[in-house]
Structures are given as structure tokens and as C-alpha cells.
Design brief:
Length: 124
């Protein structure tokens, strides 16, 4: 199983960026997908996640509520983070995360996977 992230880059304050991530491999189903971010010297923090199930549910860090939107296509196993009104404090390496149900032989088990980080820099 692999998570391939794309997007990121340099943007001015107030601008927008879109991060995408796709999961591939022997995946039976997706339990949840998320984005985390990390800056030097700090712990990785949850930015937003989306949990599968009837109705689904998105959760956001207080610092990004109203500015970021997470969307997940559970059939395509993709997650997108639309980031608007970006601020310098949003500068970080962003990581895609997925909680997946994976088939191993006759068994189904839940595993957590991480994508490679993608750098988002918000600066004028």
C-alpha cells in the first residue's frame, strides 16, 4: 500500500493551495483519511480528517476551521485538502494519512499509512 501526495508549494498570504493524495495497493476499504502538518521542533498535528460511515464526518483543527476543506472519495481512495486564506503560520510540511482495511490472505486488518510530506510555504 502506498500513499502518493501532490500539491504544495509557495503561496502568498491570503492565497490558496490544493493538496491531493491517492492510496493504492491491496486496499479492501478506507476507514478514514486525513492531513497532518509539522514544523521544525514541533509535533505533527492533525489538520483535518474525514471518517467513513453513514453521512461521514469531517473534523478540523480550530486553527483551520472556515479556511480549509477536506474531501474524500472513498471509492477512488483519494483525499483532497483545499486550503484558502492561507497564513504564514500555515507554513509546514503536510502529510497525508490513511486508516485502511487491508486484505492479507484471508484476513482483513486495519493499518495506518503515511504519505511523503509536501512542503507548503506561505510567504510574501
Amino acid at each position: 500500500v502506498q500513499l502518493q501526495a501532490s500539491g504544495g508549494g509557495l503561496v502568498q498570504p491570503g492565497g490558496s493551495l490544493r493538496l491531493s493524495c491517492a492510496a493504492s495497493g491491496n486496499i479492501f476499504s478506507v476507514n478514514a483519511m486525513a492531513w497532518y502538518r509539522q514544523t521544525p521542533g514541533k509535533q505533527r498535528e492533525l489538520v483535518a480528517n474525514f471518517v467513513s460511515g453513514i453521512g461521514g464526518s469531517a473534523n478540523y483543527a480550530d486553527s483551520v476551521k472556515g479556511r480549509f476543506t477536506i474531501s474524500v472519495d472513498f471509492h477512488k481512495r483519494t483525499v483532497v485538502l483545499q486550503m484558502n486564506s492561507l497564513r504564514p503560520e500555515d507554513t509546514a510540511v503536510y502529510y497525508c494519512n490513511a486508516d485502511l482495511k487491508v486484505a492479507t490472505g484471508d484476513l482483513l486488518n486495519d493499518y495506518i499509512y503515511w504519505g511523503q510530506g509536501t512542503l507548503v510555504t506561505v510567504s510574501s
